[in-house]
Sequence to fold (299 residues):
Amino acid sequence: MNKLIPLTVAALALLAAPVAQAWTYKDGDVLLLFRNVSNPNNDVEYDLGSVNQFLGQTNGYTTTITNWNPAIVQGVYGTDLTGTSVALLAVTSLTNATLTAYVSGLEPNTTAYGDSQSDWTYNYYSTIDAIGIRPLTYSVPTASTNAYSINPSGKYKVTSYEYIASSGTYNGVSQLGGGVPFIVEQVIPGKLDFWAVQPLGGATPDHLVGSFSLAANGTLTFTAGPYPANVTGIARAGTVDTVSYGSIVGTKYQLTKSPQLGTGATWTAVGGILTGNGAAQTLTDTNTAATGFYRVSAQ
Fold:
């Protein structure tokens, strides 16, 4: 039988955390989704509110997410969430000027982009929007908080994350039924990159918004921005220095240099900005100084 939060868990939740908002999903909200393959049980789904809270933050900004109640998912899978799968998904409306899906992933991925608009709509929008809307459309009992606990094989199975993501086959859930070219889930404890994915011709390149980390005790944190550049080598030919590094799709890289390290070091930008493509890249500088230092900043 499909049910929402057991009364005992709900009572604990009121003591453990502030009362969360009711389920009022709209496009642009971030869905936090849990399932457990090795211990099948209800899917637990949260609406964390607008994705805007995670956008435009300074690189390195870190915050603990508190507008959800871990006691609800712990009431289903136990207080130790080790082994439970988690995903975070969001999508703009189809009338948005910049169509974007925000999709969690295991690692920086060179295949995070490239769909036509029609494929993007089918693979990203239709799935993510349905996960948020169907519990309301199909009259699942109203959630008393911003979370649902739904049996993917029960009366309301068509509203569950697993059913929707697999088009009812229960296969390929971790890749949204195979439409997404990378794994969107991570087994707890772990870290999930949070991608902004646009259809071909989008106004801005697909890029890494930041990353989420979820501990076994239910602590969820977000860190904004790309990873620091991984410099792999430097070569000099005459007066030209070439710095090599591994890039992440959509991340912008800038070469900077300084005559010294430590306190008082002044870093000067060299040349233009290069957008990462997921492969090894190089930045160069014509430099007549006998000594100096370089670093590659990720933006």
Observations:
- Residues 195 and 250 are 10 Å apart (CA to CA).
